[in-house]
Amino acid sequence: MAPYSSLFFLLLINSFHLTIQQNSLSLSFPLTSAPLSSKSKFLTTAAAAESNETRLQNKNEPTPSSSPFLYNYQSSFKYSMALIVSLPIGTPPQTQQMVLDTGSQLSWIQCHRKSPRPPPPPPSTTSFDPSLSSSFSVLPCDHPVCKPRIPDFTLPTTCDQKRLCHYSYFYADGTLAEGNLVREKFTFSNSKSTPPLILGCATDSGEAEGILGMNLGRLSFISQAKVPRFSYCVPVRHGQDKIHPTGSFYLGQNPNSRTFQYINLLTFPQSQRSPNFDPLAYTVGLEGIKIGGKKLNIPVAAFRPDAGGSCQTMIDSGTQYTFLVDAAYAKVREQVVTLVGPKLKKGYVYGGSLDMCFDGNPIEIGRSIGDMAFEFEKGVSILINHERILDDVGDGIHCVAIGRSESLGVTSNIIGNFHQQNHWVEFDLTNRRVGFGVADCSKSP
């Protein structure tokens, strides 16, 4: 997710199973997806912009975990608008639902001490009870993460009345997620678990269930657990269909990776990391956009961070649609108007962001627009078939799934999960690259 909005989910719950393959542990977790509320369908990331987060990466401060990640996990998930993974947390484990978010750093779960004390939790619970876990601990106010040498304004922390480290996250629509920073294990079996990781124990977060922060930040799940790579395959979703398709998700090695094409993650000097640059995002080198086989006249500069950090291009699992800065969006809209302008639903804007919408036959309109492609370095591209150009937003209306970044109050290009359908997307942290592989994501890997 790109760092900006509120989270509202209807959660589906499943269990996990354990398998052993060639002397290595493989754990399978159900990953489900659920629709967001109408006021927050586009972005599902945790905090407001993390563009200044490098302040937290002081090398003199302790690293939350020093043990390497030695496991491979394979999951399945239901896809609608956001991906929700069910993970076993604590000792003994309590299954928690967390949104898989490549645009967030801090992972957090709902924590509510149940009263009276219940029996051991069932395989799935909607909130975490710290009193039932022997590995749970809270962070005191004097912990370096709570009081870093240089304050981190994207993770505001204070000292509460109990001298515990308290954090608060505000979302774009005013929703508040707050609680204490704690340490807890992800317990995959009796013998396999992560070290205690720092995460948020939320006591008030609106309707959100939790976040699995997967960006490059020091406190993200992948950084603390030292996950070398992870990947997911988002299946095609058919509009408002209540039957959500199933995709796949891996932590660790993906057996399909031999078919992937890779592009390098981009890095930039410190001078380009403020005020709009997010150094913890998965920043890629988008080269151009094609519609109907025609490459649009968009300067490459529209896809690269300028001196102030604007125009960064990122891959985000937690943002539903794709959003482009004005220089790029204007050219996309111009081409769509050229091709199907008379069919546009005039004056209609979906969700305050999508304004290329139609109430005519979506198959004919998609065919008239043609295929779309996001082109990267090394000849790598994400191809969107004309049948997937439009999204069914309800009431017989279909919209091109691209919005103007300015409508969200951001200055970045964000490639959302809608345009990742039927592609493997792998984040290879070891080699600092992102891989893409065309696939029928509705099929088992």
Automatic annotation (TrEMBL):
<dbReference type="InterPro" id="IPR034161">
    <property type="entry name" value="Pepsin-like_plant"/>
</dbReference>
<dbReference type="InterPro" id="IPR021109">
    <property type="entry name" value="Peptidase_aspartic_dom_sf"/>
</dbReference>
<dbReference type="InterPro" id="IPR033121">
    <property type="entry name" value="PEPTIDASE_A1"/>
</dbReference>
<feature type="signal peptide">
    <location>
        <begin position="1"/>
        <end position="21"/>
    </location>
</feature>
<dbReference type="Pfam" id="PF14541">
    <property type="entry name" value="TAXi_C"/>
</dbReference>
<dbReference type="GO" id="GO:0005576">
    <property type="term" value="C:extracellular region"/>
</dbReference>
<dbReference type="GO" id="GO:0006508">
    <property type="term" value="P:proteolysis"/>
</dbReference>
<keyword id="KW-0645">Protease</keyword>
<dbReference type="Pfam" id="PF14543">
    <property type="entry name" value="TAXi_N"/>
</dbReference>
<keyword id="KW-0378">Hydrolase</keyword>
<dbReference type="GO" id="GO:0004190">
    <property type="term" value="F:aspartic-type endopeptidase activity"/>
</dbReference>
<dbReference type="InterPro" id="IPR001969">
    <property type="entry name" value="Aspartic_peptidase_AS"/>
</dbReference>
<keyword id="KW-0064">Aspartyl protease</keyword>
<dbReference type="InterPro" id="IPR001461">
    <property type="entry name" value="Aspartic_peptidase_A1"/>
</dbReference>
<comment type="similarity">
    <text>Belongs to the peptidase A1 family.</text>
</comment>
<protein>
    <recommendedName>
        <fullName>Peptidase A1 domain-containing protein</fullName>
    </recommendedName>
</protein>
<feature type="domain" description="Peptidase A1">
    <location>
        <begin position="83"/>
        <end position="437"/>
    </location>
</feature>
<dbReference type="InterPro" id="IPR032799">
    <property type="entry name" value="TAXi_C"/>
</dbReference>
<keyword id="KW-0732">Signal</keyword>
<feature type="active site">
    <location>
        <position position="101"/>
    </location>
</feature>
<feature type="region of interest" description="Disordered">
    <location>
        <begin position="111"/>
        <end position="131"/>
    </location>
</feature>
<dbReference type="InterPro" id="IPR051708">
    <property type="entry name" value="Plant_Aspart_Prot_A1"/>
</dbReference>
<feature type="active site">
    <location>
        <position position="316"/>
    </location>
</feature>
<dbReference type="InterPro" id="IPR032861">
    <property type="entry name" value="TAXi_N"/>
</dbReference>
<keyword id="KW-0325">Glycoprotein</keyword>
